[in-house]
Amino acid sequence: MKSIYLDHAATSPVHPKVIEEMMPVYKDVFGNPSSVHQFGRKARRILDEGRRRIAHGLGANEKEIVFTSGGTEADNLAIIGTARANRSKGKHIITTSIEHHATLHAVEYLESQDFEVTYLPVDEDGIVKVDDLKGALREDTILVSIMMVNNETGAIQPIEEIAAVLKDHQGYFHSDIVQAYGLMDIDVSHLGVDLMAVSGHKINGPKGIGFLYIREGTVIESLQYGGEQERKRRAGTENIPAVQGLKTAVEIMEAERLTYKEKYLHYKQLFLQTLEEENISCEVNGSHEKTIESIVNISFPGMNVETLLTNFDLSGIAASSGSACTAGSVEPSHVLSAMFGSDHPKTTNSIRFSFGLANNEEDITEAARRVSQIIKRLS
Residues in domain Aminotransferase class V (predicted)? Predict the structure, then answer.
């Protein structure tokens, strides 16, 4: 029985070309990029080229890209670093109730440091209303943090409209774009955000690498103490093989973005169509039109998340109940609780399926049929 991976929103397989490009760096480029000798200069070239390439794809300046260990560190640097550096202007922060835990736990920490946080609600499609942001915005607001695409439901947030509201306000705008980066065309000159967090392993790159875009002029405080790497914004010797891998993953992603969008949307539609043909009682959580192509969150009435995931795994299907950071938890989804209410059955009977590089059309049909058999057996 073939195992089928439908959890790309948690992490994605590394693209073979990425591995191919990283291996020579591991073998031959061991110098410290901060060293002035030829070994250091060789590493520095890879670091600089990677930064330039990534910045170019975003319409950004290379000086605005700070390499991190991943999305979580990027979110933490953006939120805590910006809050600390701007506390003299105010201590009010706005975020949403559906953010990734990298954001939620960062703002919870700031609350313990006497910052005030407003959590915006979402509608039943999991989308923030711009008017709610306008109502929450204050003169002492110094930061707004709203993710571009939700990691559990795939809901796409109105980032450009929110940025327009904040254009003439002192508050900085941060967005976790981890789930959006691989499929959405992102240009910082149009988007209007000040800070964006990205993770390499969500776009078929290596784990342990990501970056934070910091718009020039944004006042931010480093969270690490040490050397002067990353223009004093992130101390520590840079991960040169991973930078090479991330650069390659970005190049592949940009070249294949439209193909991936069409393919993953087809996979999503095929998966749902097969469930329908099998007469399975289920409902998609969120809007069909306002979600990313690679993610679908499905409620199975009368089912239980833990039981479903266990049975899916035994049948060779890898899926998730939401964020990978809460895997194994029987806690109701905080995202679905925000959408439907904490006591709603959907918070404990919904599964996230996410599609990507590890899939083909046959996998999708077979996975949907196995899921259908399990649902019928458990009903």
Answer: 4-365
